[in-house]
Write a structure and sequence with these properties.
The protein is an alpha+beta fold. It has four helices and ten strands. It is found in: Secreted, Extracellular space, Extracellular matrix.
Length: 214
């Protein structure tokens, strides 16, 4: 009997360790350019977080943030005004933490059952940390590039494989992520469907980087 109990206990320990590893490794996000985050989101707003409440609706709970919306950049077809943002209470499950009554944030997310959900895999940033080019991208440029594909380059050589791709090379920089293209460029579709990088504040007809170059 003692052998059986010992074996059962060992099995449960191993099982629990796997479960803990699953939770710890559950939040794994691929890097994305802010333009991609914008295009893939249902809602993009600038807001100040003014309150929070832990909802005990599941094992780890859901954090509901109350926000004061300053501006909506995307999502008018989903809702006219965002009052609450929902996220997992656990960072291991990709929950994002906002500070209350301190900063304005750019918040991106998806809408499910009339509620806005966000997480660590979405693009959420303090407004003061955004570059001028990123702010201008939110207003106009990013939308112009939603039919383009931003192709990440992790090691050389890298090439685009279609006319609607922009080669994203920030991961090659010794400075690290987020890099120069993330902070200062948008991938915009031109005539005949070709996509090219543009600096956020540059006139629309001025090409900065040609994506056909490796």
């Amino acid at each position: 009997m003692s052998v059986f109990v010992h074996t059962l206990f060992s099995f449960l320990v191993v099982l629990c360790s796997f479960r803990l590893n699953d939770v710890a490794e559950a939040c794994s996000c691929a890097l994305s350019h802010p333009q991609e985050a914008y295009c893939n989101s249902d809602i993009v707003i600038r807001a100040k977080v003014v309150g929070k409440k832990l909802l005990k609706d599941r094992a780890f709970g859901t954090m509901r943030y109350t926000v004061k919306q300053m501006k909506m950049y995307k999502g008018f077809n989903k809702m006219q005004h965002v009052q609450h943002i929902y996220t997992d209470a656990s960072e291991n499950l990709c929950g994002v933490k906002f500070e209350v009554n301190k900063y304005q944030y750019l918040i991106t997310g998806r809408v499910f059952d009339g509620k806005v959900y966000t997480g660590l895999c979405n693009f959420n940033e303090k407004w003061e940390k955004l570059t001028l080019s990123q702010r201008k991208g939110l207003n106009h440029r990013y939308q112009l590039g939603c039919n383009c594909r931003i192709k990440p380059c992790h090691s050389l050589p890298c090439f685009v494989t279609s006319k609607n791709e922009c080669l994203w090379m920030d991961m090659l920089s010794y400075i690290g992520y987020p890099g120069h293209q993330s902070r200062h460029y948008a991938c915009i579709q031109q005539k005949e469907g070709y996509c090219s990088w543009y600096r956020g504040w540059a006139p629309p007809d001025k090409t900065i980087i040609n994506t056909t170059d490796p």
